[in-house]
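Quick start: what a row looks like.
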Amino acid sequence: MTTSYTRSESGTYSLASAKYVASKIATDLRQVQRYYDRPSDSAITDYALEAALLSHGGYVDKVIYGFQRDGDWILALEYTAANGTLVADDRAGGIYRHADTDGAVFTSFLHYSLKWSLLPSTDRDEFTELLPFSRADAPVPGYTGGYHTFDRTYSSSGTGFTRSTYRPR
């Protein structure tokens, strides 16, 4: 007698999946807070919600959180969206803890996806009403005196973010 089994798996990136991935970003930001006293708890909650909603909609290309001095990143966590191609899901954390952030401001910078730019402006306006805060146009920050390391992947159902860290030398 022969027995066979079939396994079916849905590749749907649900809002719950997006919130799971965003919780890893929140964990990273809490570790940043532990080492550098910023961002605030409420900012972390807002950043995670924004990442979850934009990621679920496919509206984010990259989001960067970190410290800037004179308009340049000195320490940054860069999350690049990847849709349907990820197989790893790493533990959050591993934040660099020895950056000199004196005189630096903690901020974030968002690069929207092509899908976002193709939305009618009324749909974009409606969607931004769901977000916990508004973003303003700003010049793209530069980088000063450091280097990138690609160090984490956070995913669910093949979709999520790869993380690179920009840190001082």
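That is the whole record. Residues 3-10 have pLDDT under 50 and may be disordered. The first helix runs from residue 15 to 36.
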